[in-house]
Amino acid sequence: MLTLAESENIVKDCVREATRFSGTIRSENKLYEIGVIDDDSLDAVNEEITTNPEKGVPNKHYEIDPAVLPTTTDKTVAEVRDIVQENAVELSKSTKAAFVRMQALVRAAERSSGGKRR
Amino acid sequence: MKVSALLGALLLLFLFSGRSVCADKVDAAITSVSMTERNGRMMIDLGLSTSIADDDTTALKRAQAALIRVFDVTTGMSLGDVRLESASGGTLSLTVPVLNEGDTISIVILKLTFDGKEAKNPLAITTTVPRTGQKTEETQSSSGLLSPGHWIGAKGKDDSNVYIATQINTAIDADPSYGIDAKLDVPFRRFMTGRRIQNTGLTFSTQISDAPEADPDSMEFGAYWRTFIWDCGSRCGTGVWFRRLQWRNTLQSESNKDFSNTNIIWPTALRLISKTWGSSSEFGIRPYIGNEFGFNLNSPVPELQNRLIDRPLIGLNALLLVPTDIGILKSLNWETLYEGRWPLRNELALQENGDGALKFMDFGTAPRDYVNSSLTAGFGTYFGLTFSYEYGQLPPSFKLVDNAFRVEITFKAKRTGGE
Q1: What are A18-66's pLDDT values in tens digits?
Q2: What angle is formed at CA B73 by the lines to CA B72 and CA B78, rounded to 5 degrees?
Q3: Would you say A70 and A84 are in contact if contact means Cβ atoms under 8 Å apart?
Q4: Mutating which of B85, B93, B159 best tests the A interface, going by the most A Cβ atoms within 10 A?
Q5: With contacts defined as CB-CB under 8 Å, which chain A residues touch B155?
Q6: ipTM of the complex
Q7: Which residues in chain B are closer than 8 Å to A38, comparing Cβ atoms?
Q8: Considering the entire predicted model, what is its pTM?
Q9: A60 CA to chain B: closest CA distance, Å?
Q10: Distance in angstroms (rounded) separating the CA atoms of residues B292 and B251
């Protein structure tokens, strides 16, 4: 089970990743106060939480059903954190192994493309 | 013993809740709790509604200065060995000796400050130790999660599931008149395809008025689907404006208010989603390019019935949001929409006579522009007052809205998804 601290960091990181919000993000902030200004940016935050291999729940080897994530920007960070913590489910061993291999491949590809650019 | 533990918890609550209420206190509560056995101890993870501090070191110091008590209500014991393990943002972790499955415990936290301010009420929660493999269930808390699937206020028309605006219109060469701008959105359950979330649902919208010079005369009903098809991921720095590309599709009917001109249309558009600029005031833009393809079902001109329709379009949506909390004024939103359509096949542009009869104004492939700019002051949760300006032509009748200024009383609501 994800800890609440891990869940809160996931939510904050994913909001920053989706919106590039530059201010401080606190637990009591509603999503519309921290850059999630419409349904499009809310969709982006939800997708980051669900699929981002570095900042979302997959980074902790968990998965979450997107249907449980917020449908409104009136939710607070604390409420989204609790939703994530409550609903994130640990990946099975085989999925986890495949995910770790995929992460390694992505990092290797990024390293090689970075090297070529340099 | 059990009774004495409960009485102890109640006494602590009574003593601290009876203190005079200082104006400089914050609303804070324990919103969630989870328990897991770790290294021979029971770890209790607490989620708070408010951040203790912005950085982890200060949060931990504040948590260490707080008075934390855990009562095992089932055995009637006050647990002496309570260790604070960590605190960050709005979370706090404790460990206590291993508890029996099914035991009820009560956690009380006193003197915990949030950015130097005390909580209005003592933080307390009562919960049951879960059986192995089960999730912790809170039985009583000073606050809790929002109940699933209920109505709340929305930010604007685009963000609402239900939106109703009644208008008083004034336009050049026209008497004041009344109109309605309404929208109903019924989203379906979201699902994943690959690594993309798919959003689908039904939508209905109408913009009609009894003012001949200020009546878009447009009603749309259909099913929509939207998803992201590209994102720049972590490769993009903060300087990159556009971070995602969204693909929107709708299959809808568009008609005028008496259904004398009806089209079946497939609007499709690629929208760029910008980052959000600003922190106290937030600004974002959504430029898009697309096409509307379909056919006419019935038309006031028999020669145009059943003809194909094809209109490339470009658009821009800009949104400025200023969250405020001045009395009942909760927000200020400025939203502007521009759409330009270039019909590839001949289409009508109609105009209403003073007696309500339609007459031709134009016939052909001339570009049709539409602009709508609005400033909304949000009062309370659901209601707002909107001042808007509108110019241009909307399908299917492309009646010219001639510089209409509107004052609208709006009702905006959104249904939470049962999370």
Answers
A1: 999 989 999 999 999 999 999 999 999 999 999 999 999 999 999 999 9
A2: 45
A3: no
A4: B159
A5: 32, 37-38, 73-74
A6: 0.85
A7: 155-156, 158-159, 284, 319
A8: 0.83
A9: 16
A10: 10
